[in-house]
Amino acid sequence: MASTVAGLSEIDPEISEDPAAWYKSGGLARAASYPAARVADAVGEYLGVRGPRCAISAACASSAMAIALAANMLLDGTVSMMLAGGSDALCPFTLSGFNSLQALDPDPCRPFDRNRKGLNLGEGAAVLVLETLERAEARHANVLAVLRGWAMTNDAFHSTAPQTQGKGLAGCMRLAMEMAEVGGDDIGYVNAHGTGTPLNDVAETNAYDSVFRERKRPIPVSSTKSYFGHCLGAAGALEATITIIAVCCGALLPTLRLTDPIESPSVDWLRGKVVSQEVPLAMSVSAGFGGSNAALIFEHGEFGSER
């Protein structure tokens, strides 16, 4: 399970009452020592789940990395089924941090728009059930999608800013495509990280231009953070879920409020209305502070079961 605040607002409610006093009384030290693994423990205890439990806290790529880590455990035979995802609630501590970085947009965010001003914080949770295809077929499960390829990388570029050309994110996408044994023309849709900040959206667009520039037609891309904001530790799992809906239902959500998109020869910015089309393969892309990157490639369960 992934999280960035993991209930911090509950153990330190005084931060919302008097932030200055909270800092002076050692609140930051208490925040740094809060056990993020508590989210995974709470879910495990409630459901009676046995086996490995761990928490991922890699900023905004956390729950995408949790899914990739669970997939690695399945691949090496450590487990046959895992719950993987993330949960994050709005917290004054987080709001104060992003406000100090001047990364917030006071209005509804506009990812990939030339006039974007920043992100909107959101809250949410999403958890996926991952298991081996053999186990799923043995219990006659309704397989929604197959995780065909995944990758995790780190830029080691800057504590908060992305590498401007998006080289690390591009490399991460290529590794996931290499694992999935697919090329740029095989991917039918990308659910972008798309925060709406000036730096992220340019770097991410550059990454898509690098990865998909030889594609026959521009790659359809949208950011669903324009619907529910940036859910931080939960964002990757939420967006993975939306990517699964894309391959299952053929419904590609547009980016809201995208009126003047960043120019890109390789990207077909989805905007205006939901696009209905068959998408056998789709990718979910996540990035986070500290240079964390993750890419997940999902295939329609029907096609994956035939492999």
Set out the fold topology.
Blueprint: H1 8-11, H2 14-17, H3 19-24, H4 27-32, H5 38-47, H6 62-75, E1 81-88, H7 92-100, E2 124-131, H8 133-138, E3 145-154, H9 167-180, E4 189-191, H10 198-212, E5 219-222, H11 225-228, H12 235-249, E6 251-252, E7 267-269, E8 275-276, E9 281-288, E10 292-300, H13 301-305
Parallel strand pairs: 4-5, 4-9, 5-7
Antiparallel strand pairs: 1-2, 3-10, 6-8, 9-10
Task: Explain what the structure shows.
With 307 residues, the protein is an alpha/beta fold. It has a single domain (8-305), classed as Peroxisomal Thiolase, Chain A, domain 1 (3-Layer(aba) Sandwich). 36% of the residues lie in helices and 19% in strands. The chain has 13 helices and 10 strands. The chain has helices spanning 8-11, 14-17, 19-24, 27-32, 38-47, 62-75, 92-100, 133-138, 167-180, 198-212, 225-228, 235-249, 301-305; strands at 81-88, 124-131, 145-154, 189-191, 219-222, 251-252, 267-269, 275-276, 281-288, 292-300. The strands form 3 sheets. It has a 6-stranded mixed sheet, sandwiched between helices. The longest helix is centred in the C-terminal third of the chain and has 15 residues, at 198-212. The protein is globular, with a radius of gyration of 19 Å.
Short description:
By secondary structure, the chain is of the alpha/beta class. Helix content is 36%, strand content 19%. The chain has one domain (8-305): Peroxisomal Thiolase, Chain A, domain 1 (3-Layer(aba) Sandwich), CATH 3.40.47.
